[in-house]
Write a structure and sequence with these properties.
Length: about 170
């Protein structure tokens, strides 16, 4: 009787452990899967990435990809088009000449010039790091920012707001 109880409890523990190991990771922790063997390259790669609700977060277009090792891919002439979570409209566009993406951490690194554009600004720099999970990044060295709608960003005094309201 005792051995039967031990056997059932061991099988139960093994079953629970197996379920946890085989269970899908949360989608926010998923890694980008690029179906290219180590040492091989591909031309014209397009990777759409969606969130848990199925909304398009960004599309990665790459002219040439080379799998360096199991975790890293070299990319040449890449464009990342991000999309707004609320509206689904195109948001920012990131242009990279040569970069490396770690498919396990979803981080793209470049030591070449980068250009980030949106309707209201253009940001350039000599190198960058971009996390595709959080959609945040850092541009470094010789940074230049051009803001197109600067007047919308400046705060108006209450007198200016009142006069603007009377003019309408």
């Amino acid at each position: 009787m005792k051995s039967c109880v031990k056997l059932i409890s061991i099988l139960g523990l093994v079953g629970l452990t197996a379920v946890e190991l085989w269970a899908d990771k949360p989608k926010s922790d998923r890694k980008i899967d690029i179906p290219i063997p180590v040492g091989h390259d591909a031309k014209g790669l397009r990777l759409p990435m969606r969130n848990e609700q199925g909304q398009l977060q960004f599309i990665l277009d790459v002219e040439k990809v080379l799998r360096v090792d199991q975790a890293n891919v070299q990319m040449h002439n890449s464009i990342i088009q991000t999309y707004d979570d609320q509206t689904g409209a195109p948001s920012a566009k990131i242009e990279l000449l040569d970069s490396v993406m770690n498919t396990e951490t979803n981080v793209i690194t470049t030591h070449d010039p980068v250009v980030i554009t949106r309707d209201d600004f253009r940001l350039t720099g000599d190198s960058a790091v971009f996390n595709t999970k959080t959609r945040q990044g850092k541009v470094m060295k010789n940074i230049r920012l051009i803001i197109y709608n600067r007047d919308e960003l400046t705060k108006k005094s209450p007198d200016q707001q009142a006069s603007a309201g009377e003019q309408k």
